[in-house]
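Table S2 (text version). Query chain:
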Amino acid sequence: MQAVQIPLGPELRIGGPLLIALVCLALLACPIVWPWRLSLALSGMLLGVWQWHRFLRRRPVAVAPGLDRAISCQLADGSTLTVSELRIGVLSPWLVSARLEGVAGERVDLFVPGGALPETAHWQLRRWLIWFRASDSAAGGHDKDLET
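Corresponding structure-token output:
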């Protein structure tokens, strides 16, 4: 099967920096003395920019099913993550949110708004995650309702 390419949608392209700016503005509006406001706003901005840069570098750009009901994920930095464990947050037509854990213990957050992909690709991605989760639970003997 073909890989689903995951572009950086406008929701994330605009929303990430906007969230950093709003946090900094909220910290500047706090009713505390100015030196504390400035230091907290600067700390918030530095932390936010560092996390945003880290997300852009390690975000999934393609997800594909592999052999033996495995899922592989290509990251923005060029590396490939073979998923060993999956923790689904939200799985709906409007949003796919999951934490993918690799064999070596690395973790990647998959966050795909519904508008970022065509409807068929979004549906295919959701089916692969359910398919992987069902095979994982069948091997572990729990969540029998997902095997259908």
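Notes on Table S2: DSSP finds three helices and six strands in the chain. Residues 34-58 form the longest helix (25 residues).
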